[in-house]
Amino acid sequence: MKFLLVFDFDHTIIDENSDTWIVRCAPERKLPNGLRNSYQPGHWTEYMGRVFVYLGDNGVKEDEMKRTMTTIPFTAGMIDLLGFIGENKELFDCIIVSDSNTVFIDWILKASDFHKVFDEVFTNPAAFSSTGCLTVQHFHAHHCAKCPKNLCKRKVLKEFLDKQLERGVSYTQIVYIGDGGNDLCPVMFLKKNDIAMPRQGYTLEKKISQLAQSLSPVQCSVLVWSSAIDIMSYLKLLIKE
């Protein structure tokens, strides 16, 4: 008996958006209007690339960015939940699928000593260039019309499950924990024995509820959470069964 826990990162594990938090490093903690207004829907990664160039041009260094990122608060109860998963790793495989980037997630998980809880992190690859500027690339290419062009979380989840099956690993249940609009695509891939756990009051919960109202509900069970303690309570029941 093994369970797969799939986590989003921003507004799920941490209680903020890591990409907008980094703006605290900018002069006067804000971006110029021209840069702020340059975002085009579906092209967030390119927008963040321009933000990182602006920070680099203004002399913001890697260590300052790291200090700022590691002050991001975790969502309520998340530290307890991750501790519980860490104590029960023989029952849980745990992955992150996020539209953040490798550098931010790595900094935050290592600073809090939670990196060992997660078996894999799927997110946009990032690195510092020779000039000290953070650069981010697309995670992959895909053909899904519903998702931002750099990341389809359904494709990531499906490929991970296929790879695990080749290794002889299958899961009793998949638990998907997220909050955003880009979490709907993988949730629609879940089967009836799986469970989606959308964060209360966030886009994913609203979209799942819209689908139910239009009589095309998701196949999986749905359990809304407001504190990660709600998730932990569910997992405790799961492993008792």
Characterise the protein shown here.
This protein is an alpha/beta fold and 241 residues long. It has ten helices and eight strands. The longest helix has 14 residues, at 44-57. It starts with a strand and ends with a helix.
Write the layout of secondary structure elements.
Blueprint: E1 3-7, H1 18-21, H2 33-36, H3 44-57, H4 62-69, H5 78-87, E2 92-101, H6 102-111, E3 120-124, E4 126-128, E5 134-136, H7 153-166, E6 173-178, H8 184-189, E7 195-198, H9 203-213, E8 221-222, H10 228-240
Parallel strand pairs: 1-2, 1-6, 2-3, 6-7, 7-8
Antiparallel strand pairs: 4-5
Index terms:
241 residues; alpha/beta; two-stranded antiparallel sheet; 10 helices
Q: How many strands appear in the DSSP assignment? A: 8
Q: Quick one: biggest sheet?
A: 6 strands, parallel
Chain-averaged pLDDT: 95
Portion in helices: 25-40%
Q: How does the helix and strand content classify structurally?
A: alpha/beta
H/E series, N to C?
EHHHHHEHEEEHEHEHEH
Write a compact overview of the structure shown.
The chain has 241 residues and is of the alpha/beta class. Helices cover 39% and strands 16% of the residues.
